[in-house]
Amino acid sequence: MGKTIIALLQETVEKYGERPFLYEARNGAEYSSLTFREVQEQSIRFAAGLMALGLRAGERVSLISEGKNNWVLGELGVLHAGAVCVPLSVKLETVQDITFRINHSDSVMVLASGQQIAKLRPMKGQFTTVERYILLDAVEDPAEDEIYFDKVLELGDALLAADRKQVEERMAAVEPDSLANISYTSGTTANPKGIMLSHDNYVCNAEQAVDHLNGIPSYFRTLLILPWDHSFGHTAGIYAFMKCGAAIASVAAGKSAMEILRNVPKSIKAINPHLLMSVPALAANFRKNIETGIEKQGKTAWRLFRQGLKVAYTYNGEGYNRGRGKRALLKPLVAFYDRMIFSKIRQNFASNLQYFIGGGALLDIELQRFFYAIGIPMYQGYGLSEASPIISANCAQAHKLGSSGKTMPRMEIRIGDEAMNPLPVGEKGEILIKGGNVMKGYWKNPEATAETIVDGWLRTGDMGYLDSDGYLYVLGRTKSLLISNDGEKFSPEGIEESIMAQSEFIDQCVLHNNQSPYTTALLTVNREALKRRTSDPVEASRVIAGEIAAYMKGGKHDGLFPHRWIPSAFAVIEEPFSEKNGMVNSTMKIVKHKVYEKYADRIAELHTAEGKQPDSPANLEVLAKLMK
Predict the structure, then answer these.
(1) What domains lie within the chain, and their CATH numbers?
(2) If you write DSSP's letter for every residue of 408-431 in order, what string do you get?
(3) Residue 190 pLDDT more than 60?
(4) Does the structure show a pLDDT above 60 at 187?
(5) Does the pLDDT of residue 508 top 70, yes or no?
(6) Which residue pairs from 474-481 have beta carbons closer than 8 angstroms and sit at least 24 positions apart in sequence?
(7) Is the predicted pLDDT of residue 515 greater than 90, yes or no?
C-alpha cells in the first residue's frame, strides 16, 4: 500500500498532462502557467542537477522562499532526488530561529529566493553543514557558494544525457515511507520540533481531503495565499490539487513582503479562484474590504445589505439545517437579497469562488455566518502538522457552524481522558487520531515522539469533543488551558477571539489563570479608536473595562461564556505582540508562554488590590503614553 509523491505526479501526468498546474506572475508580467508534464520534466531535470552537485539520497535541503513556481519545482526536485525538503517560513527573522532549523536538520543545501538569500548571507558562517545555496531568482553578484536555479537545470540536462539510468534508479528507490519533509513547529508552547512527514503521509492526507470534499474538479484554480512552508498549504494546496489535475497560483511577485500582501486583491481578480484557503486574519480583512465597499455606496445600500445579512443568517441556521422548517418561508427573500446585493459582491470579489476552507486558529463563528450569508461558505477545519495536517473539516455535504466538521475518511478518532481511555459522546477530553496521515515522529527527538505517538495514536494536545452527529468541536490546547483554584479547566481561545472580534478598542487579548481565584487578561489596544473616544487615560481604562464587562451579567454578550472565566482584571500592554518581538509566531498565533514569561510581573500585579483596578497606576502609565 502507500504511494510516493513521485508516483502521484506520474499518475496525474498520465491523466492531465497538458492541463495547467502552476500559475505565477513575475516582474510585473501577466500570469503564465506550467502544465503538469512541464512540472514533472523540470522537477526531474532539477533532481538530476542536485545529484550532479553531490546531493545524496536521504540528505536534507532547506527551502526558504515566497510562493512561486520554483518553490514547487525545487521541492519536487529534492523529492525526485530521494532527498528530504525542509521548508522554512519566510517570516523567520532572528539568527537563532533560522540557524537552529538549518543546523538541527543537518541541511547540506539551501534553496532561497532573492529576498531570503539577502537575509541568510550574514548568517552563513553559523550554518554548520550547508555546502551550497541555490538561488530561485536572478540575483546580482552571487557568491562563490551560490548557484542559479537555471544553472542547476543545465547540470541536470548534462547528467540525464550522460547517465539517465542513475537518475531513474534514484527516483525508483524512493519508498512511500521515505521521508519527504521535516516541518518545524512554530513553537507556540515550546521550542520548535522537526515533524517528519513521509511521502505517503502527504499523499494519504491529500486523498483523504479530496474524498471528504467529494472531489476537486480539474478545472478548479486556487490562489495559495497561505504560507507554502506549512503542511496545510502543502496538502490542501499543492498535493490535493495535483491529485485532481487542478491548478494552483502564487500571489503576484513583489519586492517586499508588504508588496506581495498588497498584490493579493489583484491576484484574486486575475486568477478568479474557485476555492481559497484562509485563516481568520485574512478572512476578517476580506470582510472589512467588502463592508467598506458597500458603505461607500451610501446609506440605502448599507441598510439593504444589513437587512439581507439578517435574513440570510436566519435562513442558513447552523448550516446542517439551512432552509428547513419555518426557515423555508424565507427562501424568496433570500433569493431577492442575493439577486440585489450578494451576487454583485461575489461578482466583484471573485465570480468563480465557491467556498473557503479555514485552517489555523478557530474562525470566529460570526465571520463564518457572514460569508455563508453572502454565498461563499467558509468551512472551518482542524488540523495539526503532526497529522499532515488535516484531521477534520466542514464541507458542502456536512456543515455545522461552530464545529470543525467531521473527521477525514480512513482515519480513526477518539476523545480520551488523561490515560487515553475513550470518553462518551459529548464529553470533553484530548483529541486522539490514528491513520496513514500520522507523522513518522520528531527529528532527533525520540522522547517527544514516544510521548506524542502512543500505540499508533497521535496525542494532539488539543481538547475537544464529538457531538451525537459525529462533528468535532475543538476547544484549544491542553497546555494553554485556564485552570482555576479549584482545578476546573477551560479553553481561553473562544473568549479571546470574541473579545478581539467584538471590541473596536482591543486589538489583542491573552487570558491567564494558573490555579488562581480569578482570570486575568493582557491586552493591547487600538490607540486610534481610543483617542477618538477620549484623551483621558482614566476614562480610557473605563472604556476598556466596559468592553470586558459586556460579557458579564446584563451585558450585551452575557451568556456567551461562563462568567467565572471572563477576566476580572486586565493589564494594558504598551507594545503590540508581534513577530518582531517574538510574541507572535509565523502562523500569526500568539506564543503564550513567551507572553507569560515577559509580562510575569504585570500578571502578578493583577492579583493585588491596587493592580486589579482598571485605572491601576501601571495601566494609567501605559495609556498616558498611548494617548499622546
Answers:
(1) 5-174+213-257 (3.40.50.12780), 277-351+354-436+447-478 (3.40.50.12780), 481-626 (3.30.300.30)
(2) PTTEEEEEE-TT--B--TT--EEE
(3) no
(4) no
(5) yes
(6) 474/362, 474/382, 474/404, 474/431, 475/428, 476/362, 477/188, 477/189, 478/430, 479/189, 480/188, 480/189, 480/592
(7) no
